[in-house]
Structures are given as structure tokens and as C-alpha cells.
Amino acid sequence: MTDAISNRKDRDLQQLHDSGCDNLSSGQVMAKIAGDAGVQKMAIRGDDKSYDELIAEYKGAKANIAGSVEMGLHGVEVGGDVIGIHVLESGVFATGAAAALPVVGLGAGLWELREVNVRGEALSRAVAKDEEHVAMLTHLDLPESFKRAELAKYPEVGTTFASANQKMATQMAGQDRPLVLALQVQCDHGMNAAMDMSTSGLSRDAFMTANPSLAKRYADDAAFKAGFDAVTNTPKDSAEYKTMESALQQRDASYARANITMRG
Length: 264
Description:
single chain, 264 residues, mainly alpha, 2 domains, three-stranded antiparallel beta sheet, 12 helices, globular
């Protein structure tokens, strides 16, 4: 049975390589999965700021604007799809569901209303991206303690069957199951890069400076970043680290058989 499963995985990886999908970024993969699931498509990145991070940033810059934007956006979900909120110059929030929320007592001038609009759209995009980040992280082979810590960064992501996250999860378990392999490939690129950094003895900053292409991938690719961070944040003397390292070595052997290059 183990040999049969191994052979099937090798065939799947070979097909992934032959199709060129092993070179797709996690942003491209998740946008495809989101589109197939019928939810908003976003190209996620490694350096994306979560909804909560943006709210904290906006509150630090101008609390009344952040509060107004959050009031109109947080938790607004119809059929699991986030409603984009726009602020009209007439002073109302308008949503894709044709609902309106009066903006009363903002005490904001036209510039502030426009600023609320810009930040509201940024937050709307962040929520959609957070849904993709959660769907991706859930399907990566990474230490459970690391995944729990990462998933905790996205508390607003929907968990109902109708939510975007769950719609993508259904897609990833069915029609788009092969694309999950593409996500794991990018994740494992990041894990191998972190392993190489550990072997090199260089600090994180020195390693990234010496390897600008890896530094760029860390910023550009969410799955690569997740793999890299999982290695650097998991204690090397822990059972989880040993399990993670063993699993990575097994996948690397499978990649080699499928002509998928992990390094170089």
C-alpha cells in the first residue's frame, strides 16, 4: 500500500512538472483556486499585511478614520463573500448588496472621506487575501504548532460552509487537488532555503543579503515564506522539527524523481 501511494504521488508530481505548474507562485495558484471556487480572486504575497495588522496601523495613524472603516467592514459577509465597502461623497457607506450605512458624526472633511474610502478598500482586499492565506496554510505540510500560530493572525476569516475559505478548501480537496502540490513545492523551496541558512551559519539578514533572489521570493511568495518561517520558528531540538525535517527529505526525494529542482 505504501509503495502504491508513493507511486501515485510520484506520478502526480511528474504531471505537475510536465505541466509547468511546479513553477507557479503561490499567489498564482491561490488566485486560480479562488476563481474556481467562485470567490474573489486575490494574488497573495509573502509580505501581505493581514486585516488586523492594517487596522492597527490605521488606528495608529488616525484612530477616527480606522474606527469608521472598521465599523463598516468588520464582519460584513454575505454568503461567505466579503462585501466591498465604499464611502460616497454623499456621506454613506455603499455595499455590493445595495445596503447603506449612514456615516454620522465622522467629523471628517472631503479628504478624510476619501481616506476612509481608500483604507476601506484596502481592508476589503485584506479580508479576501486573509481567506486565501488561511486556505493555503491549512493545506501545507508544516508543524501544527506553527500553523496554529499563523492561523491565529486571521481571526476574522469565515469558518462556515458558505465562507470563501471553506469554498476554497472544498475546491482544493476536489478539482484543484493537484494545485495543492504546487503550493507545497513553493513551501518546500522556502523550507530548504531556511535549512541552507542554518547550515551556512549566517544570520538571517546576512543570508538574505547574500541571496537576493531568495529574499525576493520571501517577500513575493506566501508559501515560500511559510516554509521558511516554519523552519526558523520551530525549535531544532523538538520532535516537531525532526518530523518536519524527515518529511521534507522524503518530499525532496520525490521531487528529484519528478525532475523538480529544489536548489540552484
